Amino acid sequence: MDGVPRVPEQRRAERSAALRFCVLGPVRAWRGEEPLPTGSPQQRALLAALLLREGRTATASELIDALWGEEPPSQALAALRTYASRLRKVLDAGLLVSESGGYAVRGLGEGALDLGAAQDLATEAEKARAAGDLHRARTLLDRALHLWDGEPLAGVPGPYAEAQRVRLHEWRLQLLESRLDMDLEQGCHSEAVSELTALTAAHPLRERLRELLMLALYRSGRQAEALAVYADTRRLLADELGVDPRPELRELQQRILRADPALAEPSAPAPEPSVTPVRPAQLPATVPDFTGRAAFVAELGAMLASADGRVMAVSALAGIGGVGKTTLAVHVAHHARTAFPDGQLYADLQGAGQRAAEPETVLGSFLRALGTADSAIPDSLEERAALYRSVLDGRRVLVLLDNARDAAQIRPLLPGTEGCAALVTSRVRMVDLAGAHLVDLDVMSPEEALQLFTRIVGEERVASEREAALDVVAACGFLPLAIRIAASRLAARRTWTVSVLAAKLADERRRLDELQAGDLAVKATFELGYGQLEPAQARAFRLLGLADGPDISLAAAAAVLDLPVEDTEDLLESLVDTSLLESAAPGRYRFHDLVRLYARACAERDERPPGERDAAMSRLLDFYLATAAGVYAIERPGDRLVDHLEETAVPGLVFPDRRAAQDWLYAEAVPLLASVRQSSGGTTLRRAVDLLWAAVDLAESGANSKEYEAAGAALRDAARAARDSRAEGRACLVLANARHWSGQFGQADLEARQALALSEAAADPLPCCWAANILGAFAFYQSRYAEAEEHLERAIADFRACGDLSGAAAALCNLSRLHLQTGRADSAVDLARQGTEMYEGLGHLLKAANGHYALGMALGKNGQPADATAHLRQALHVFRTSRQRLWEGMTLFRLAEVDLLAQRPAQAAANAEMALTPLREIGGEWRRGNVLTLLGKALDGIGQAGRARVCWQEALEIYERSNSPEAADVRTLLAPAHAS
Asked: The whole model's pTM is what?
């Protein structure tokens, strides 16, 4: 026998799971997912000391010193042996070994100790960074940092544990600095500011963190704050240590003062990345039967060949729709590919449609294609254009900009660097595009047109009917797109002869009068395809073309056609097969812009009875209204709005849960708002207004606030022109809400007053309730507290009279804020709690978050910061999962307020920084001014007075522009007395 007790099979199975240990937090052990008891603090100290020696033997005296230091107990050795014996019973046999009078932990599996795993990840991160793979290096470091679970060796006594805690804490800071350094190298400047602000507050004397914060602020366009950080650092080091900042920090300050151009770009890692740069190849396929245009091909090819050595070669092709601009440009671009070895970019700018592609959207896709990470792509058009030019610098790239609207649309998309070139196609002649080589593209010659037709149809079929073929291309107006469509149809129908096709085209009733008139000339080419449709297909083609949205879902199309979804899908897919419709994504369809115009012309000409066109759009509106009402009901259970909406003749979709309902609303936002604008007259006006009200989340979230507001203004004007006081009152209410959320309080107040007066005159009770609630909020913002209380008390009473407890809860939460502001903190808490409980009683998750928001504010100012934080965190979670960006930002702002009241300025600064991210885009300038004021107070509280003043100065400028009373408070903060 070897002296080792035999383990029964069952126990061996239980112990087969791998052991894991944690020292980057409380010292813990697991077998698989089962936690193991690690004993008393001294026993955990022994386990930690052995684990940290990584298999090396520790003598008994070393372990006694580690656990008790210079004054061990008299029975220290016996206690040590007892602890070791207890650990052996818990751990696997053979793991804790006795050797040379001491102990060691041996035989741990790979990754069994969190510290070892962190060290491995950090080593791999260094290798990835050295190889130039910053993304992988940052990911690995992030994984290493996530292994920390609070203070290392938490609760473990003894001098050894204390020394290791200091070492591990310092190592974690070094890893953080490395990861943040890589964040800045990858362009994540704005995102890093919040984290660096908190870290510099926690470690004020750590100069490397201050250096990174200065760099992040400077690259975020916040130069004054960056310099203020240096001033704060210099003052702090002088006061605390009597030293100056280190040379690297002083040099960075000087470079910022000089606005060193190299400082604005992330520094490249050393050595240079070994990975191959991204080489986009986005050109569409060239047509195999490209015909003619020899002179143009030579002319444009020569221009592109001259790009090397020139600032930029730009050629702009102009001509009517269907003349072959895109085909020619793509053909020339493919021939020139070898002259542009660093890649080719392509974008359809959709300039012929009502909603052309936005340059910033195109720039975003180009930057991604060139290898720029999403997190490094800035928001504004100017910043994206600057980054685009920087990325292209030193490369030879060809950019093909197809279907441009005008010169203004394409200017930000031009490379502007030597060695690059751009090809532009447009229906307009771009005489205002400086330095461009303009090419006017006309229709084909008769010889070229016949050659193209022959290549598609086949030499054999055309040779025997040459005169008929000439008749065909002449009827097509020698327009390339028209010829291609006609010839393709003929090629697909083997039983047809060329003469049959020529006879069809000879009938002028089959061609539109506009055949020779500009953009409408392309319509003749679509007539062939439309004429081959079955009646049901043709009806679908005509009616779907009436909708204004950029695309349409299958369910919405079914409403337009008044058909079951299955039948609708069959029709739409058959139209896709004919190329008269495109499948934008599964379940979504769209027309090419020219085909849509043609479809509408067909509807005006062919749809019988004529009223069916209006009926189809009415059904679409009904579908959107019924579905949006369902979304509203799911989001706001107990809210009575759905009982006060116009009736619909078409049912809406039914959703399995709140998430699916939200997904539908945001996915349909643009087509839905297009339907609203399209329905602003006649019998659809009231339903359009109600649809906008039911889709209120599109504005409140900030996702589509500008489009929402514009639609509201159009409906208000239409209702006013129609003398429909009920519709006008509701439209004014919708507009008041939209302008409230965008920070336009003066205009919103006027709209709310009109909404109240009109709704009272129309005996429309629910808008009266909401108008009173909004007026109370506006009066509160403007410090008219008595008026605010009168409006809010009325709103509460009116909501209750309407049976709308959800609305009453909203007014109670607003009244809570008023009580809070007027010194009635206890009643403010009670009111907010009432509102929250009413929301929760209704199962109203989203609005209950507004209740917790109000309750958190009241508790915070009533001296209960812990409870306030809990309620605000609860609200923040709901707002984030509900995509309510405005409320997310405001809740972070309120958390920062509570942090400041609780004397947590560093955390307040971090939350205020995070609040600024959404509130820079939505919510209006006034709200941003409030956040900047608070951020300044928090920064002042952590000793960054210079940066605080920069924030206050920006807030003051905002308040002065809007004549806000808060300007006086900020002036006080900026006064010399405060600074001293």
From this structure: 0.57
